[in-house]
Amino acid sequence: MTEHHPDLAEEQANIDHAYDCLETSRTDAWKLRGLTDAGIAAGGTMQARYERDVFDEALVNRLTQLDLGDAALVFGRIDRRAEGPDAVESFHIGRLAVADEKRDPVVIDWRAPVAEPFYRATGRDPMGLLRRRHFSVQGRNLLDIEDELFGDGHLGVVEEDGTPPHNGLRGYSTLLSVLARGRTGQLGDIVATIQGEQDEIIRSPQAGVLVVQGGPGTGKTVVALHRAAYLLYTYRFPLEAQGVLVIGPNRVFLRYIERVLPSLGEAGIEQIVMADLVPDVRYGHRDNPLAATTKGDQRMIKVVAKAIRDRERPLREDLVIPFRTTFLRLTAHDSSRIIKAARRRYRHHNAGRRYVETEFYATLAATSRLETTPELVREAVSKLDEVWIALERMWPLLTPAQLLHDLYGSKALLKLASEPTLTPAEYESLFRPRGEDLEAVRWSDPDIALLDEARELLGPRQGKNGKLEDDVDIRTYGHIVIDEVQDLTPMQLRMAGRRSLNGSMTIVGDIAQATGPLAPSNWDEVLACLPDKKESRIVGLSIGYRIPTEMMELATKVMMAATPELRPPTSVRGGGTPPSVIATTHELLGSAVVSAVQDILDEVGDGKCAVVTPDSMMEEVEAALHAAGVKHGRATRTGLEGAVTVVPVSVVKGLELDGVIVVEPARIVAEEHQGLRALYVALTRATKRQTVIHAEPLPPSML
Questions:
Q1: Residue 43 has pLDDT above 80, yes or no
Q2: 61 plus 165 within the same structural domain
Q3: Is 407:457 a contact under the CB 8 Å cutoff?
Q4: Could you tell me the pLDDT band of residue 153, with boundaries at 50, 70 and 90?
Q5: Closest CA to 206 of 239, 182, 184, 175
């Protein structure tokens, strides 16, 4: 990158012009909205009001897209051959398409086909380019320019031996300057520095399940988010109506990524955690390890289905009830016949209740010696306790929470539903004393998928006059993105797949970072639980951008011990500081953490620092920081807003910070389901400085 590029002033003028055109577009949009408000009074025709509302909604969405905040509008330019001798045409590439008053393009949206060579052109395949220009921009101020020239003799694109420079990275100097910036506690977009292997994934066809395997720092999360924005731009119809869903591993992670999509002009994409898909229940229960593992296993599909079937029971003995001057009778055999018929007719359990009731009263009426009808019998006996008890035994109306609450609270029901699918130790681990108030029951994370499975099988409850009492329709989406997918259990994967309208999904993760109770050993195990309407694809990200080589060396030793069959990413950043490893005593561990925090803050300045601890040590570490007067937050409450944040290792995945202190690696290994993988995650969060503090002996893989 040159110190004073000769075109700096000219390109700054182009950027200023682009911002002026953008502001004009915003002003014109507000004027148009004012005209619609003034031109169509609220009391107009229904059609006029509808058209006004649709127009306003589209206008508001566009205004939201035009609000860039501090993000740069323009970040590059491409020059390519045009028709005619020596003819050249230029396009400025940016976050949004911007036109002047004549509707001529001033900025090309980065997702447009004409912008693809900006990300994909190479020395061997220039894609018609003569020059690719990268802007180093802060807001609307152009700081510097880096040019890549295409054609014979330009070694900035191809080295003397014919290989691409810098591992084929484009805009290398611009990329390194971006990577060297301090972290803000929020994930930023990479739209200005997308590399070739990343762009190939972003622009990959929509159909089927796309698996993105990427090690720490390869940008898999931000690539997946850019892909969501690209797909919505490219397939605006029908994706905008069908919806795009992003599923993250926890709320700390969602807060961390929440600004990426709005910065790309896509504010309407839903970003949730799995628990958001099952509303109206309370969470917070922690399962024992065996229960958590069992609940995530696909064998629970059979258990839940059997638990429902076990609630469809014939009467133990004949039901005899008085009716006028005689008696009505429903035999146990008749009740069995009704249940078998309902099972054949209805896929959803609750939908069969009305049929069971109809047959119940029809059978009673048929046994009367008096002239009557099923309707008269229902009116006469439906409020009797013995009738209600009989119907509830035969075919109760159930919510998912009622079903699982009853199941977990009865060892007999657990045994009946689970044998021979589960072992006695497995189904006994699910037992929980039954509470008095169902609404007060707290559910665990593994319960989410089981509640969803039950909802799918039960269906809505029907009240009087056939009106549905529950809204249990499962919303589907045209495309689903799942991050850290390697930590979802088979049941959770099945739950996510249920939301897919057409099997179109992008799932990203790293097998080496799989820390859940049912960690997969390969991607085939994950794909087996997802829709297979179209052929799936597995692609990889091989280059690490975030972590300096010196830090990656220690993490790689742990990774090779945990998953020796995988290859670590190649880091593009060198010249970093090797991790510091500090041995201390249990009594002095707190003061060692405080000292390390102060050292890192002195080095990273305004950057972000995290103290990554075993979940069991959070309170101890926070107490030490508080006693020393170190202001700090906890990731589970405040995200990464402050300069110092205590982060339990269970939620650190996906985050990146300038400085990281990893506390007591041996305890991390001992406490987590996949201890070595969890430690690998903790050791791959830092971008500038890393310190390891331990009182217990280090795991052998770190020596």
A1: no
A2: yes
A3: no
A4: very low
A5: 239
